[in-house]
Amino acid sequence: MRNKFFSSILVAAAMLVGAISNASAGVLYTGSGTWDSFASNTAFSGANKSWSFSFEIDNPTSNPSSAIVDFHYSLNGSLTSLSASSIQYFSAAQGGMFNLTLSSGDVISFFNKLGTPAIDIGSSGHLATGQWAVDLLSTDSHGADINGAGVVTAVPEPSTWAMMILGFGALGFFAYRRRGLVAAA
């Protein structure tokens, strides 16, 4: 009787954790690199200046999506006041990767590194995870191109990892308990 009660409590807890996990499943994006030596000085770029960003987005998501959470953008190591207003993903047939629209109205286009195959990381609404070398393109207020290069990484949110580890732990516990019950019989 005690084993059935304990198993029922564990199953109910697992279902609750699963429901919470599905409600907050997301992807954490980080990126860093440098703008080229001809890049204009703008709120987000500068000649030979480093850039980095991070943000979270729900998975699955709409395309384009304005559900960007916790956006941070740094230029040359200094955090800027820019925020992201939307992200639009492109299929491999359209060249892959994404456009990031900033609160300033500027759009930064992220492309697969020249010479590598185009990758669709989210045009269907289901976000891929991984690490990609990217080329960047934007324009300044005079219409001149601003180019850069870097790396973008997308990983599941820490809560997703925690749920996966908890699930493996529960499976291990059930296997341990089952082995103990078989030995006692």
Automatic annotation (TrEMBL):
Domain of life of the organism encoding this protein: Bacteria
Pfam families, sorted: PEP-CTERM (PF07589)
InterPro entries reported for this sequence: Ice-binding_C
Chain ranges passing through the membrane: 159-176
Keyword Transmembrane set for record: yes
Assigned keywords, A-Z: Membrane, Signal, Transmembrane, Transmembrane helix
Residue ranges occupied by any Ice-binding protein C-terminal domain in the UniProt entry: 154-179
Signal peptide positions (record): 1-25
Protein name: PEP-CTERM sorting domain-containing protein
Annotated source species: Bradyrhizobium campsiandrae
High-level lineage: Bacteria, Pseudomonadati, Pseudomonadota, Alphaproteobacteria, Hyphomicrobiales
